Amino acid sequence: VSTQSTGAHVRGWLVRVAHTRQCESATHIQAAWRGYQDRKRYGRVRDATVFIQRHVAAWIAGRKERQVYLYMRQVVIQLQAISRGVAVRRVVAKQHHSATTIQRVWRGYAARKVFGNQTHAAVCACV
């Protein structure tokens, strides 16, 4: 009876060892498969992250470039306004000078005419 029970114990032990090895092998295969899947998933997540970061950086750069453009546009508009104001003031000053010259010449002419008439009247009165 002891020989049978010893053989049964050995066979049971061998089955348990084989089962333990199978479980360890299955665990090892599962770990390798999960690692492969995780590495693949990590690559996709990393690519998606880089894609998003690149687009966000481009969007931020675009906004900044637009702000610079709008600032420069406003500066150009102000410079144009200043330049046009200077040109208009120059034209108005020239017109004012021309009007003053015309008035001066006319008043001189009118004064000479009045003086000429007065002298003519004085000469006629003396005669």
Write the layout of secondary structure elements.
Layout: H1 2-126
The succession of helices and strands, N to C, reads H
Continuous helix count = 1
Quote the average pLDDT.
Answer: 94
Helical/strand content category: mainly alpha
Radius of gyration of CA atoms, rounded to a whole number: 54 Å
* Separation, N- and C-terminal Cα atoms: 185 Å
- The number of strands is 0
Low-confidence stretches at least 5 residues in length (pLDDT < 50)?
A: none
What does this structure look like?
It is a single chain. This protein is mostly helical and 127 residues long. 98% of the residues lie in helices and 0% in strands. It is built from 1 helix and no strands. It has one helix at 2-126. The longest helix is centred in the middle third of the chain and has 125 residues, at 2-126. It starts with a helix and ends with a helix. The model has no long low-confidence stretch (mean pLDDT 94).
Characteristic key phrases:
single chain; 127 residues; mainly alpha; 0% strand
Short description:
By secondary structure, the chain is an all-alpha fold. Helices cover 98% and strands 0% of the residues.
